[in-house]
Every structure is written in structure tokens, then in C-alpha cells.
Amino acid sequence: MGNKTLIEKNFWQDRCVFLTGATGFLGSWMVTKLKKLKAKVVGLVRDISETKKNEFFPDAVLDATVFGSLEDYDTLLRAVNEYEIDTVFHLGAQTIVGTANRNPRSTFESNIRGSWNLLEACRQISTVKRIVVASSDKAYGEQPQLPYDEDMPLQGSHPYDVSKSCMDLIAQTYHNTYNTPVCITRCGNIYGGGDLNLNRIIPGTIRSVIREEAPIIRSDGTCVRDYVYVLDIVDAYLLLAENIDRAGVRGKAFNFSNKEPVSVIDLVKTIVRLMNREDLSPVVLNEASHEIKYQYLSSEKARTLLGWRPSYLIEKGLIETIGWYKAYFERVAGH
Length: 335
Prior knowledge:
By secondary structure, the protein is of the alpha/beta class. Helices cover 38% and strands 15% of the residues.
């Protein structure tokens, strides 16, 4: 298992890479890996968080930081042009479902306008040879058949889901109309150390257990999802970018999942068991709304065309994740 032999050893050396969302959860891991591969990495940063993660990502050091937002086309155009960008990873987005429900306009501005701004900037600059855009399994909306495959229609029906459906279609439009060298990822729920959106189920559950509190489940606990470890997704992005000129790859969308869909309640119970605190029974609030009940992906296309395989089954990934958060809360949050 794994993709170590597939990622070309010297492909990224001295290659100029632009990341939106560079200081976010996935972005921090991406920068770390790209720097290890000797790429020159430029990151778009909107806000500087007071919560310092640098000690946990000591190698995620950008070669240049561009301060600005996805809504600012001129900033994106300047960055892509002046840094002579070869590869773009578009990870930046408003990613929290609850935030999107409270303020859909800001989510649409960031996720939809931000995507066409970036793709238009890339279209104008001839140095750009490959773009990978982060869509989501949520872009599919609710489907009558499972697992989702890439040929299913995109039909999100709530603000976050719709924003991902739209940005996905916009990316396809740029390829279909202008032959823009873009590919699209549709991933299951990405987890791992460094996700500081603690209202998400995995980091939130780990924090509760560390605090010796019962984990909280906002839904009824029966929703079924894919959970895929962040390092497997880093490999997926690199593989997709490296293979973007291959037949059947450029302009296409790819699902990435680990073939282990699990219910929220079972996921929480697994975390509690791995942390040896099965005395802490989860509290099920059954308050969540606008949730699709069953949502998981087929990644056969990525396995067949890219040779991608997840290296982390769910328990292995959770064990590493728990270790990261234990260290984080001890050193940063005083636990």
C-alpha cells in the first residue's frame, strides 16, 4: 500500500508552486511535503491566527507569503505572474458547514468567486502548467445510489454543498472552454493533526476525552461518511498534479476515499476506545439539520488511472491523530 514509488523523486525540485489555504489544515501538510521535495512554495494567506501551529509544522516554511483573499482578483493575478507559478493547488475555502448556513454570502464569495478569480488569473499567465482544485464529496449532494462515482451529477442543495458544486463546475468549464490544465479532487472527510476547527467530530471528540468529558454528537449519530487521513490526501494531490497531462486525467475529477465508510457514533466510540476511556459515553444531541444521511465515495478511478492507494486505514490514522492532539493540547492549550 501507499504511493511512495509513484511520486517522482525530482519532479518538484525548484518548481514554483502556489497554494491557496497554505496555512490551513491540509495546506500545512502540503507545504511540509513540498518543501521536503525541494519545491519553491508561495502561499496565499488571508488571516494570521493567534494560535501558533509553527512548532507542530516546523518545516512548513513558505518561500513567500502573499497576503490577501480569494475575492481579490488583482492580488491573485499579481502573485501567479510575479512568482512565475508553474503549479497551483487551490485549497483555500470557507469549509465549515455551520458557518455557511449562518452566512451563505461569505461562503459563496470565497468558494465560488474565489475559484473563478483564481482560474481566470491562471488562464492569463502562461507559466501555469497544472492546477488542482479542491472540490468535495459534498458537491454530489444527495444521490439515490452509493458509493458516489465521478459520473454522478453535482447537485448540492445547502450553502456549503452548493458552493462546492459550483466551483467544481467552474473548474470543468475552464478546461472545456479554454483547455485550462486543471483537475479536481473530491475527497471524503479529511482528518489528521493540525485541524483546529474543533467543532469537527474527530478533533472535538479527542479534545473532550483529553478533558475527561463525554464527547458531544450534534447529529443523531447515524450519518455515514468517509474519513481519509491527511497524508493520503497529500499524496493524492501530488500524484494528480504530476499526472495531469496523461490521457484521461486532465480536466477530470477524481474521488479519494479509503473504502471504510463509518457512522459518526461508531467513529466516536472508536476514538474513545483507542484513548482507553470507554467510560465516557457520547452524548447524542440530535440537533444537526441539513445533513445528508449517507455519503461515501468510490475511488476506483484514482486507483486505476493514478495507482493511488491509501496507506492509512482508519484506526492507524486515528492513532497518529490522537498523538498529535495530545501533544498540541499539552503544549498550546495547557493540558
